[in-house]
Amino acid sequence: MNDVIKLLNNHRSLRKFTDEKLSEDTIRTLVGAAQSASTSSYVQAYSIMGVTDPEKKKALREISTQSYVEHNGHLFVFVVDFYRHKELAKQAGTEISYDKTENLIVGVVDASLAAQNLATAAESMGLGICYIGSLRNDIKKAGEILGLPEGAFVLFGMVAGYPELGEDGSKKERLPFEAVYHENTYQKIEEVQDDIDAYDQRISDYYSSRTNGKRDDKWSEQVTEMLSKKQRLDVDTLLKEKGFLRQ
């Protein structure tokens, strides 16, 4: 197993950082790594916001409710962005359309690939990271704080920084290979049920050992409960206001 695979397999989310800020060189290195990710048809339909203003970070923390959104080495926000394309088309005396579902998928995938490149680069430099999907708790306000124009919206954030002493996160086991990898034909749930049941028990044991028995829920229980609740219904409205999904 080479060093890159070891790094990827050792990923864990970190949430406590020292007060040391990332240097300009480090930020440029990380963003450069992000930009080296694959991009659909060379569209590059994303932007990366760096948030250093204390008041903006505080306001974004209030949306997220997570303290590490405010206290970190650097806060990145990944934005699906067709604004620049729209303006470039206007300069050329033409128009573009980005209101189809396919355009939305292109932007989300582009931004996500860039973010994962940045995350891997950061971890290779000894930094810790944590994705912040909770910026979508109020996606409209998050965009207003960052001054996003039509054609651009907040997808998620990512905090990065130097971990506090003793902060090494906790590595959560992922679903077993047999439940995720399907060769040629999709496997129905009954074909992998035993693997998922065994995984559920390991996750229950993991929580129990980390909380001295105060928590022992299973993965399937977690996701079923979460997905049974309607969440962030304002996202659809905001996307349409920004010019997405109108057709």
TrEMBL record:
It comes from the Bacteria. InterPro entries: Flavin_OxRdtase_Frp, Nitroreductase, Nitroreductase-like. Reduces FMN, organic nitro compounds and disulfide DTNB. Involved in maintenance of the cellular redox state and the disulfide stress response. Its cofactor is FMN. The keyword NADP applies. Pfam families: Nitroreductase. This is NADPH-dependent oxidoreductase. Belongs to the flavin oxidoreductase frp family. It comes from Jeotgalicoccus halotolerans. Keywords: Flavoprotein, FMN, NADP, Oxidoreductase. SUPFAM superfamilies: FMN-dependent nitroreductase-like. Residues 10-162 form the Nitroreductase domain. GO terms for molecular function: oxidoreductase activity.
